[in-house]
Amino acid sequence: MTNEQFEPFYDVNLTYDDNYRRGPFGQFAQALAGEASALKGEAAASNSGTMDSAATSESAPTTDETAATHATPTEPATVLGFPVNLPFGIPAGPLLNSRFTTAAFRMGFDLAVYKTVRSRAWGCNPFPNVLAVHPKAADGSLTPGSPELDEGVLADTRYDLPISISNSFGVPSRDPDVWQPDMRDAIAAAGPGQLLVPSFQGSRVAGMSTDEYIADHVATARLVCETGAQLMEMNTSCPNEGHNRLLCHDPHLVGRITEAVKNEIGDRPLIVKLAYFPSDIELETMVRETVGHGTAQGFSTINTISAKLVDASGNQALPGEGRDRSGVCGNAIRGAGLDMVRRLSAIRERLGLDFAIIGVGGVIEPEHYLAYREAGADAVMSATGAMWDATLVRRIKAAIGA
After folding, report:
1. Nearest to residue 269, comparing CAs of 247, 291, 284?
2. Rounded to an integer, what distance in angstroms lies between the CA atom of residue 83 and that of residue 368?
């Protein structure tokens, strides 16, 4: 059972499909339930100068007022040219559909990434998908390349803070006939100073050539454009190249894909989602192959750290073939996320290139948001932290006086 003091907006005790149909839960559900009354009380709230945090987007200030309220010398009021109240939100993963993204906006998260979509329906890995992960380090951290990742990390159902979890879903997707109209609704629900970011990826199937794989990315990007999206994020950080192989670790192929996608989407900014890169040389190659050619305008990093997960007896924790390893997210990966942001920021400065950096990984307290900003992130996102604490964004805004 989940610790009683927390009620995640994604219920880890239910299947992905049940969450999709019945979610969100906790305070996110309350935000949706209160939406009608919040709309009725919009004028009164505006006149009194008070705002219910669960409905902030409905009574948010104008763009100019937003900039005046939230912009400080270290707090830009735009992300990739779009005005935002605060450059903080929830990345691709836990926001399964428009109900989740709308609830996120109502709770005050000003950036919401719609769960990664594909050109076709794609099934989810078997349940369970989320387990609590307990690294050996006293601070609960995992270090990329450490022996522990291959020897085994304990995973169970003790969801204690500071929380780290498995992320073993397989990037499921509804058919475009389902997600396209829902994505339109998600985009429309963003209030002033809020931004819906669609996430997509290509799907490689048996017998598919590289050219066909690239074409599938383009086709999916086109489907996203048809929803009215103003920008999008392309996921290269999941094992969508086969078992535990990451597309982002082939910068040259990513460069070919972003070129083809950019030709399709035109002036819409394209963000590339990256996993952890141990090598500065490979990371710089990624920047040169994408941003260097004008085919990407930003990077979001990191997604997870891959680890072998075991139960208390040392056996495979997640059932099923090919699931001996899983991505780990949450508190355990904050150090790796900050490291990637610092290195990307250094490359950006050294090459004199202009691109956005969105820092992701282990943000569970306001000081973690500030740490990412100081490391060079233009925006920051939290998945696990926000899942277990829907008030995280309010605490961050209170901490910085926003």
Report:
1. 291
2. 23
Q: b or e along 357-394 (b: 16 or more beta carbons within 10 Å of the residue's beta carbon)?
A: bbbbbbbbbbebbbbbbebbbbbbbbbbbbbbbbebbb
Quick: pLDDT tens for 237-253. 986 444 457 999 999 99
Of 22, 4, 12, the residue nearest 330 (C-alpha): 12
In this predicted model, what pLDDT tens digit does every residue of 304-343 receive, in sequence order?
A: 999 999 999 999 999 999 899 999 999 999 999 999 999 9
Q: Which domain CATH number covers 305? A: 3.20.20.70
Evaluate whether 334 touches 176 at the Cβ level (below 8 Å). Answer: no
pLDDT in tens, 31-51: 999 864 444 444 334 334 433
Tokens coding 343: 């290195």
Q: What are 126's two structure tokens?
A: 């078997």
pLDDT tens for 103-153 read: 999 999 999 999 999 999 999 999 999 999 999 999 999 999 999 999 999
- Closest-CA residue to 176 (of 227, 112, 212): 227
Establish if 186 belongs to a structural domain. Answer: yes
> What residues contact residue 360 under an 8 Å CB cut-off, 6+ apart?
91, 300, 301, 302, 303, 337, 380, 381, 382, 383
Structural domains counted in the chain: 1
In a domain, 56, yes or no: no
CA atoms within 13 A on the CB side of 29: 13
Please indicate, yes or no, if residue 310 is contained in any of the structural domains: yes
Q: Cβ–Cβ contacts within 10 Å for residue 151, how many?
A: 12
Instruction: Please tell me the distance from the alpha carbon of residue 106 to that of residue 89, in angstroms, as a whole number.
Output: 12
Assign residue 171 a region (left: φ > 0; alpha: ψ between -120 and 50; beta: otherwise).
left
Q: 329: which strand partners?
A: 165
Instruction: Domain of residue 131: give its range.
Output: 87-400
Distance of CA 53 to the CA centre of its chain: 22
Instruction: Mention every residue, 6+ apart, whose C-beta is less than 8 A from residue 322.
Output: 243
Pairing assessment for the beta strands 305-310 and 325-330 based on DSSP bridges = antiparallel
Reading the block at residue 133, the tokens are 């992960």
3-state secondary structure of 394: helix
Considering Cα of 342, then 365, then 305, then 289, what sign does the dihedral take? negative
